[in-house]
């Protein structure tokens, strides 16, 4: 297909704008948490796979961590296993953990790997149990109300938190030109499995790899102020202020804290990206405007 003059000029402008970003990020590692709406639409899934393959082709090293909550919920429903949530976390008994491993480590992981490979990449699917990739321990949840003399400890089963990441394995794969695709399942000291929030796994992987960027795909336009405007170019101090004054609250808090902790631990920048936008990852990395909220230790120039 022959492009019109105007379309050709637009393509040239896009490539010209992308070039300095490509140069800046060649050889750098970017950790991308993939989930939400971006995993549900065929158009968005295809676009995400192309984005990842293009990043690798120009010398950037993407590492993908994926979620899969809706898919887990669907299979649990079909198996007549009831779902319960406490503070947004799925209570994971032994039967539920079996389903989590089947869905995340099998169905979802392999579909992402296959999609990336179909678009010319070399993706390899992993769970945290492969070579002890994601070491974990049981997450302790407590609840305190004014009338309680001491906090109540709530058992939510096989839900974990990351204690260590096997960076040797990831570095070996990246250096071999493979694209790691990680399901957020951790392994305990006794070999037990843990269901871990994908944002938290992505954050800890980014910290361990000393990544250039942590990118969290979401179902919203980004972090918004009280007037509904998307905020970007934020420092960690500004984010702390937005949490303190109540601008950031509720379900957005865990995601923002994950992004904030990654930057405070040495990741150059964290991004909260609107996964509903086609090619959102490339737009955030390779354009001046981006499509989400950027958090770093210093204000961008």
Automatic annotation (TrEMBL):
SUPFAM superfamilies: Carbamate kinase-like (SSF53633). It catalyses: N-acetyl-L-glutamate + ATP = N-acetyl-L-glutamyl 5-phosphate + ADP. Keywords: Amino-acid biosynthesis, Arginine biosynthesis, ATP-binding, Cytoplasm, Kinase, Nucleotide-binding, Transferase. One of its GO terms (molecular function) is ATP binding. One of its GO terms (biological process) is L-arginine biosynthetic process via ornithine. Pathway: Amino-acid biosynthesis; L-arginine biosynthesis; N(2)-acetyl-L-ornithine from L-glutamate: step 2/4. Substrate binds at residues 68-69, 90, 195. InterPro entries: AceGlu_kinase-like_sf, AcgluKinase_fam, ArgB, Asp/Glu/Uridylate_kinase, Glu/AcGlu_kinase, NAGK-C. Residues 28-274 form the Aspartate/glutamate/uridylate kinase domain. Catalyzes the ATP-dependent phosphorylation of N-acetyl-L-glutamate. Belongs to the acetylglutamate kinase family. ArgB subfamily. This is Acetylglutamate kinase.
């Amino acid at each position: 297909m022959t492009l019109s003059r105007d379309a050709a000029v637009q393509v040239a402008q896009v490539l010209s704008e992308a070039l300095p970003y490509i140069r800046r990020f060649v050889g750098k590692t970017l950790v991308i948490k993939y989930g939400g709406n971006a995993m549900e639409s065929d158009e968005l899934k295809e676009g995400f796979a192309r984005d990842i393959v293009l990043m690798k082709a120009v010398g950037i090293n993407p590492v993908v961590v994926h979620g899969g909550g809706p898919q887990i919920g669907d299979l649990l429903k079909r198996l007549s296993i009831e779902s319960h949530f406490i503070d947004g976390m799925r209570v994971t008994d032994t039967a539920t953990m079996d389903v989590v491993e089947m869905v995340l480590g099998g169905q979802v992981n392999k579909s992402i790997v296959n999609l990336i490979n179909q678009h010319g990449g070399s993706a390899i699917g992993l769970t945290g149990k492969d070579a002890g990739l994601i070491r974990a321990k049981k997450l302790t949840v407590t609840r305190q109300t004014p009338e309680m003399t001491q906090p109540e400890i709530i058992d939510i089963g096989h839900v974990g938190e990351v204690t260590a990441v096997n960076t040797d394995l990831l570095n070996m794969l990246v250096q071999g030109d493979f694209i790691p695709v990680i399901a957020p399942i951790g392994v305990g000291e006794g070999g037990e499995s843990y269901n871990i929030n994908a944002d938290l796994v992505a954050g800890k992987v980014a910290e361990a790899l000393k990544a250039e960027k942590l990118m969290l795909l979401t179902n919203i336009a980004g972090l918004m102020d009280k007037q509904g405007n998307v905020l970007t170019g934020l420092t960690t101090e500004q984010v702390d202020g937005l949490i303190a004054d109540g601008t950031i609250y509720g379900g957005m808090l865990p995601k923002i804290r994950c992004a904030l902790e990654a930057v405070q631990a040495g990741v150059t920048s964290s991004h909260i990206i609107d996964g509903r936008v086609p090619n959102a990852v490339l737009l955030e990395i390779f354009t001046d405007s981006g499509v989400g909220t950027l958090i770093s230790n210093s204000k961008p120039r």
